[in-house]
Amino acid sequence: VTERRDIERILADPGFEVPAAPPGDRGLAWLRATVSRFVNGEAHARRRALVELEIARLDPEALRRDARVRTEAVLDAAEGRVEAMTAIARRVPLAALAHALGVPDERLDAVVGDAIAVAPAYPTGATGSTGEGVDAAADRLRELLDRGDPEATAAAIAVLAQACEATAGAIGNAMFVASERPELRGDAGALLRKTLLRASPLRVMRRVSPAGEPVTLDVEAASDGAADGDPSMAFGSGVRPCPGAAQAVALVGGVLDALLPRCAVDPDGLAWADLPALRLPERLELLVS
Ligand code: HEM
């Protein structure tokens, strides 16, 4: 499905469900089976309320400041250049989120590392050769973010797992857009709006039709025809839009506040990830002044 109005109609229709995760009692399978993201109907509504409760405690202004300060610390230590996807785009937003979720400072690096291990496998459940490491990381997150109830614990982990790749992609894509459109460098807000409209990290969303057929919603193709003032489709809409959009915008904004005045993209240090569902740099070398 490649037309905006068709995508929005399907996202608003509860008859089109998300592909459900199979049951699982440990590791990544447990996480996917227990979050809101891969379930429909009443269980989705109940779990979504839990994740919204976690997210309601995450003040966007505080996240933005924290993300800026953490990014500046990385740049100060960078000695002229930094690979931003690893050192900043994934780590900084997750550290700010984990801190705001109540993870103590001495556990922050471990939690961020485990969330980064889980995140790429979380959408599909496919881990390839990294399965044991991903499962062990998910089990450690389950212990460290224990909320006393499995669905509430999974909701806290979901904040990190959902945020990681999409937020990193928004940061990397925004730096790329800024390198192509230098006039946008002075305004992080305008740059991010342009990025979410033209270079959204999520390329496709998936649903199952009422007849049981898989449906691919091609947000990337639908965005091709967008006019500059159109609202972005980056955060979804309808039955289950992203509940962390304000936090995502704040985190990306805070990172860009620190990057834009001091960093330029090294064109030889940019490589794109080859992924069907995501658009993001695999490698993004920045020259730091
Ligand atoms: C730029 C970064 C982000 C983008 C583009 C994004 C986009 C999306 C989209 C499109 C969905 C819906 C997927 C679908 O219906 O198939 C979604 C779901 C979700 N997002 Fe985000 N997201 C981002 C960052 C975040 C952050 C920072 C958080 C948490 C603070 C978050 C939490 C969630 C959760 C919990 C869901 C599942 C909602 C549900 O199951 O009903 N996201 N996101």
Describe the protein's architecture and organization.
The protein has 289 residues and is mainly alpha-helical. The chain is 54% helix and 11% strand. It contains 11 helices and 5 strands. The model has no long low-confidence stretch (mean pLDDT 96). The structure holds protoporphyrin IX containing FE (HEM).
Q: What structural class should be given to the helix and strand makeup?
A: mainly alpha
Q: What is the strand arrangement across the widest sheet?
A: 1-5-4
- The whole-angstrom Rg is 18 Å
**What is bound: which ligands?**
protoporphyrin IX containing FE
Distance between the termini: 44 Å
Strand content: 5-15%
Q: Keywords for this structure?
A:
289 residues, mainly alpha, three-stranded antiparallel sheet, binds protoporphyrin IX containing FE
Task: Characterize this entry briefly.
The protein is mainly alpha-helical.
Topology of this structure?
Layout: H1 4-11, H2 27-34, H3 41-56, H4 60-76, E1 81-83, H5 84-100, H6 105-118, H7 131-144, H8 150-180, H9 188-198, E2 204-208, E3 214-218, H10 219-224, H11 245-259, E4 263-272, E5 281-288
Antiparallel strand pairs: 1-5, 2-3, 4-5
Helix pairs in contact: 2-7, 3-8, 4-5, 4-11, 5-6, 5-8, 5-11, 6-7, 6-8, 8-9, 8-11
